[in-house]
Each structure stands twice: as structure tokens, then as C-alpha cells.
Amino acid sequence: MQQPPARISSASLPLRSRWGLLALVVLTIGSLAVAWLLPDMTMLHFLWVAQAVPILYFLLVWWGTQASQRDDHAP
Prior knowledge:
Elements (H helix, E strand, L loop, with lengths): L14 H23 L4 H24 L3 H4 L3
Helix pairs in contact: 1-2
């Protein structure tokens, strides 16, 4: 008899990873909102979507996956 797949609880994610994930969602929705509200500003869209957002995604993912300082010095 097969066991059901194990569920991963969101409580098992470190707090820093949850904050990073929330920031990625807010960045994505905020970028879509800016594009929706300002459709004629193509230079802003280019600079934001093609230049800034990928860098911010990279930084947020890197930050969210790093161990916090408290974790490194835990007793």
C-alpha cells in the first residue's frame, strides 16, 4: 500500500524565506499594476521590466535563501 505524499508545511520555511517570497509576490503584482496604470510610458516599462526587476528578483531570491545571522550563532 502506497503512502500519501508528504506535505510540506509552510511553518517549516524560515521566516526570512517567507519574507522574501512575499516581497517577490509584491514586486510582481506591483510591476503589473504599474504597467496597467501607465500604459503610455514605454521607457519606464523598459527600464523597470527589462533592467530593474530581474536584478531585484535575483537579490530577493539570494537574500531569502541566505541564513540569517541569528541562525549562524544559535547556541
